[in-house]
# Entry
Amino acid sequence: MDKFLLDVLVDPISKESLSLHQGIFDDFGNVLTGNLSSGNTPVYPIENGIPRFVTQVTDDQQQTKESFGFKWEQTHTYSSPDLQQTAKEWLIERYGFKDETDMKDYFGSRELILDAGCGGGYSSFLWLEDSSVSRYVGVDISRAIDVAKKQLAVTRGRYFIQADLLKLPFGESIFDTVFSEGVLHHTPSTERALKTVVGHLKPKGEFLFYVYKKKSPIREFTDDHIRNVISHLSPEEAWVKIRPLTKLGQALAELDVTIDVPEDIPYLGIKSGAHDIQRLIYWHFAKLFWNEKFSFEENNHVNFDWYHPRYAHRQTKDGVLQWCEEAGLKIIHFNEQESGFTVRSIKE
# Structure
């Protein structure tokens, strides 16, 4: 943490400026440890060069915090070249970039980027890699922020903060770009998280985000039932408990069977036509993810990511469009897939 970050940060509750106390510095003048305080407000520690602003959270937030902290520490489950290439192509497709160069050039042209819910830095790595982004600030509520720092802090101008998206330690209109890939729905309120984050965006700044889409009725019921069972387990127990679901997804995929649905079944959300049996069950009955290019643990990671966090809200298109309008966002790119909605927008 250097002087730039100290100048940007404010107390997340009172919004007063912060002062550094008992700071220990490295040879480059970066703060390694210390405390931040605005006087009469709580003292916020700096550990491993990361300011820590997560003080009080609800039980459900704590569960989500522990879930993602554990998940992103399993770096062996999301670091293979095949998985990263697939994720990169999906990111480019959904956000409407022409290709990888176009994506990296876009982010490289931005002045100050907030990665709102960076996790272990996985999604942002896909465009930060070999990129000349001016300044990047990664924020996450969980201990995954330490993983992100290890993965991404390879050059100056990259900062990491542990904080709650609903109580960010910034003033209004700070960032010219906010990126939030699959995070807003893991908060107590997707709508409130979206509108809170927008407040830290400059006028004419750009907000890029992805949120879950509401699925077919049986899939929604099954997912909620499984999540209710899985989310009460520790992350370690849940990871093991998810494996039978992943094995079923694998078994269905290996059948390599296509069936023909003769006509639409609108009350189940199923359209007529040819369907791979694994994908039909996946989209309409239960999330049993499987991709043959990935290892078993990488596939299990995807299913764990869906079922273990207690907060995993799904949205409708009309709801997302309404929130953007109310937040003063002009949508310049909207991508709808069965999994979710991806939005690029400008703050008016």
Remarks:
- The two ends are 32 Å apart (CA to CA).
